Amino acid sequence: MKSPRNTHSIIPNLFTAMNLFCGYYSIINTSEQSYIYAAWLIIIAAVFDALDGVVARLTNSSSKLGVELDSLADLLSFGAAPAFLIFKIFLFNYNTLGIIISSLLVLAGGFRLARFNVQLVGFDKSFFKGLPIPSSGIALASFILIYYEPQFGRFAEPYSKFIIPIVILLSFLMVSTIKYDTLPKFTFQEIRKKPYHFGFILISVILLAVTSGKALFFIFVFIILFGIFRHIFYLLSKKN
User: Rounded to two decimals, what is the model's pTM?
Assistant: First the structure.
């Protein structure tokens, strides 16, 4: 007879499967030039990615299989799908160089996930080493949703000039050792321990509601920059 733990693990794995499906469907939509829909599917994949972790904790069903499956889904949804999307929208203009630049998201994301899996000890973690690949995918997808103009088939100026630096920066941050906080557990003890995390989440939800989701890119810009500046501050304080 199967143990309850094995039965419960099916539930979070279903959310992971939906993450994987959204990534695959995003690639199909990109190939059909439905770029806005493809970008939204990356965001939806991120929602399923967050839910599988929450459900795994609630049902106490975290497993090595779940970790490996999650990494495979993340590489497709937040590595390959955004890379193909940004190539088809913009980087194709640079021919072979555009292929190389867009591939950085897949290569860096794959290395980032492999490093995470081999260094994982237990299933509870307080931080990530390097920018999580879902954050990279969300940042790029939300940038496209704000600044890409489908009616003209191009990015609004001057924002197209930022695409290559953004792709290179996101790729570098994924393979860096800069620490990024994990999503907090919604428990009373965790709220008392890290009230600023929940304050930031509350403010983010309000901004997303007020701006009809347009604030998503800027929220992730803040998260990314906060990690960089905190890392620099830590290095400087260590020297002093």
Answer: 0.89
